[in-house]
Design a protein that fits this description.
- This protein is mostly helical.
- The chain is globular, with a radius of gyration of 22 Å.
- Helix 4 runs antiparallel to helix 12 and helix 5 (about 105-110) packs across helix 18.
- Helix content is about 65%, strand content about 0%.
- The termini are close together.
- The longest helix has about 35 residues, at about 310-340.
- A two-stranded antiparallel sheet has the order 1-2.
Length: about 475
């Protein structure tokens, strides 16, 4: 069933007259703006795409990956990077068919079924709420490096600032994300250049021992065996979560047919430079045996080089990465809730927009829940909080699964002439999409084997049960909302 386009939202939750004859594949089809303002330009979209691929998963999580797999972590990032590119090209094909805000649930609703759209929208919303809880608390903890301020105060201040920025306008959100991403990019490029200088000029404390041979000298390239490398794939995939955020911006991009394909096509370059390139440089300057879980490899590398000032710099960068993630979370949660509400799969009051085109109630509700993270961190520090964080991986990968399944079904319909062809086809699809699905399935199995990650698989059935019961209630109270997409 193709989506039926509707008139532009009036900004207060109302919709204009439906138009069944509107071309669903056209970017400018009526209703595609959904009342939002297309205020995100190419510069901001590019940086949002880049920032989505760089976060605390790299700045902090890579330390655990290195300790588990040694230099072969580089290979894990390379293989996972190929899969991520397949996912992003599948998303790109769908976005050029119909660029809308809340894209994942929209495509799942249209090509998989109404329950798939319902589950995807609410699961992706939960993913960002949980991520926001952890990131704002992490940002507050990083502030203690400089200031002896109670952590909850910093968390509260950060939440209020980011909440206000998201309500003022989407353009301000884009500017914040642009500069957050700029800090992260500059830090990684700077690290690569410093390491390159050490390798070629031999300065710093690590100058005498720095060499690319460190990639295979200390126990080989696979010091923990192939099994150790495989077990890092879940860590790697977690690091890539949020790369799909560019899809959520589709409804507010000024020129989606140009900006989105360009952002997606640069994914391999970003992964090659910011992940593979950075790790090759770090592990060529400092032996992998010097890195430990829970410690940023960037901080550890600066310490080994005798550049202690680098620790303060990296702390600022990690703070920026956490704020960037929380900022993105507030942006996406409000739009997911509004998309669900517009399709009668969420409370109607979530449809309301401010004069600046931002989802007021949805963003406010999500930001309020994110504050619970401060309380959780106060009550159950350590393992309990980390167990909640682990759910982010499985819920984030659900969005990827829906993107791939939706693309496979869309391509089949397009080939039969039932829906318009996309102007940005995924090369090798649907085979590349099937491969990516199989890879994600393997990662889920590995998560079940790893006792540290297994908790997320225990949480998933509980959330699925909540979604199932909620959908049955929705179906009983509002059969129209549960039966089909209204757009």
């Amino acid at each position: 069933m193709t989506s039926v386009q509707v008139g532009k939202d009036d900004g207060h939750g109302g919709k204009g007259a439906a138009r069944a004859d509107a071309p669903t594949g056209a970017a400018g089809a009526p209703g595609e703006d959904q009342g939002y303002h297309r205020a995100l330009g190419a510069r901001q979209i590019q940086m949002i795409a880049i920032g989505g691929a760089i976060g605390t998963g790299l700045f902090l999580g890579a330390g655990k990956g290195i300790s588990k797999a040694g230099p072969s972590l580089i290979l894990a990032y390379a293989i996972a990077g190929v899969v991520i590119f397949f996912i992003m090209r599948a998303l790109g094909e769908l976005l050029m068919y119909r660029p809308v805000a809340g894209s994942f649930s929209e495509y799942a609703r249209e090509f998989v079924g109404p329950f798939a759209g319902f589950a995807t929208g609410w699961t992706y919303w939960l993913f960002w709420v949980v991520t926001g809880m952890t990131e704002v608390t992490a940002a507050a903890s990083y502030m203690t490096y400089w200031f002896d301020t109670p952590q909850w105060i910093s968390a509260l201040v950060f939440t209020i600032i980011l909440y206000a920025a998201n309500l003022i306008s989407v353009k301000l959100f884009g500017e914040l994300e642009f500069w957050f991403s700029m800090v992260k990019v500059t830090a990684i490029v700077g690290m690569i250049l410093i390491c390159l200088g050490i390798l070629t000029l031999g300065f710093s404390d690590a100058g005498d021992t720095a060499s690319v041979t460190l990639l295979w000298d200390d126990g080989g390239f696979f010091p923990k065996g192939i099994g150790g490398t495989l077990m890092t794939l879940q860590i790697v995939m977690f690091a890539f979560l949020a790369v799909e955020l560019v899809g959520v911006t589709a409804g507010e991009s000024k020129d989606p047919e140009k900006t989105l394909p360009k952002a997606i096509n640069t994914v391999p370059i970003r992964i090659a430079v910011f992940y593979i390139g950075a790790l090759i440089m770090i592990l060529s300057v400092v032996s992998w045996t010097n890195f430990k879980p829970g410690i940023s490899p960037f901080v550890a590398a600066f310490d080994e080089m005798g550049l202690q000032v680098g620790a303060a710099i990296v702390n600022f960068v990690v703070l920026t990465a956490a704020l960037s993630s929380c900022n993105s979370g507030m942006y996406s949660t409000g739009r997911m809730l509004r998309d669900l509400a517009l399709n009668s799969q969420g409370p109607r009051f979530f449809t309301k927009l401010t004069r600046n085109g931002t989802p007021l109630i949805g963003t406010t509700f999500s930001a309020g829940l994110m504050l619970i993270g401060v309380w959780i961190n106060y009550q159950w520090p350590g393992d309990a909080f980390n167990k909640i964080v682990s759910f982010a991986t499985i819920s984030g990968m659900w969005a990827w699964v829906m993107i791939l399944v939706s693309q496979i079904r869309y391509r089949a319909k397009a080939d039969r002439g039932e829906v318009p062809q996309s102007s940005f086809k995924a090369p090798g699809a649907p085979y590349t999409s099937w491969f990516a699905l199989a890879f994600i399935g393997m990662v889920v199995v590995l998560m079940g084997i790893d006792k540290d990650a297994r908790i997320s698989l225990y949480c998933a059935p509980v959330w699925a049960l909540i979604l199932g019961v909620s959908y049955l209630v929705l179906k009983k109270r509002n059969p129209q909302g549960a039966a089909f997409s209204k757009r």
